[in-house]
Amino acid sequence: MTTHLLDFEEFAATETPRLLRVAYGLTGNPHDAWDLVQESLVRVGVRWRRLRHQNPGGYAQTVLVRLNVDRHRRLRREMPVETTYDGIDRPVEMAETFDPQLVRALGTLSPKQRAAVVLRTVEDLDHAAIADRLGCSAATARTHLMRGLARLREELTQEKVDGHGR
Predict the structure, then answer these.
(1) Minimal CA–CA distance to 28: which of 130, 97, 95, 92?
(2) d(CA 78, CA 135)
(3) CA distance 146 to 105
(4) CA atoms of 122 and 133, how far apart (whole Å)
(5) Are 18 and 57 in contact (CB under 8 A)?
(6) For each of the chain's 166 residues, which pLDDT tens digit applies?
(7) Which residues contact 28 (CB under 8 A, 6 or more apart)?
(8) What DSSP letter does each residue of 11-76 carry, written as one string?
(9) 136 alpha carbon, distance to own chain's centre
(10) CA 50 to the chain's CA centroid
């Protein structure tokens, strides 16, 4: 095997758990999360010679976030509103999981709000890094984050008031 290929394999093995955590936060579904991670790694692999000495982890995360926004747009066009996802019997192994109430509340956010919240809380990225991943200005990233967090507080408080909370 060439050195480039070995470098990429090491990168993929190291970055996959982190990317999977972010993807799960974005999708709320381990299968969709795994699909996003795989596609992100494929896109990094294709550009590996150019990216390997830059920031391949940041590039992979940017690709992952943007693929999720595209996926959400495509699903909105393809699926009727009443359709829900039932899941698949064979689970994807996740190192970490999120509280089901949090996953439901995250599902009420727009894709960019959800991405901003997940990148801030799971990856601890600042506004500039979130903006880079979303492809927008830092001010827009701050707005997505602020509105997303406000909506989460509203949703989680409402669940607690309605008696669905713990």
Answers:
(1) 97
(2) 25
(3) 15
(4) 14
(5) yes
(6) 555 667 889 999 999 999 999 999 888 888 989 999 999 999 999 999 888 888 899 999 999 999 988 887 766 655 555 545 555 554 545 555 677 888 888 888 888 998 899 889 888 899 999 999 889 999 999 999 999 999 989 888 887 666 655 4
(7) 98, 103, 104, 106, 107
(8) HHHHHHHHHHHHHHHHHS-HHHHHHHHHHHHHHHHHTHHHHTTS-HHHHHHHHHHHHHHHHHHHHH
(9) 16
(10) 24
Taking residue 163's Cβ as centre, other Cβ atoms within 10 Å add up to: 6
Give 3-state DSSP helix, strand, coil % of the chain, rounded to 5.
Answer: 70, 0, 30
Residue in the structure block whose two tokens are 């795994």: 34
What six digits make up the tokens of 137? 């200005």
CA pair distance 135, 16, nearest whole angstrom: 22
Using CA atoms, how far apart are residues 122 and 110, in angstroms rounded to an integer? 17
The encoded tokens of residue 60 equal: 């992979």
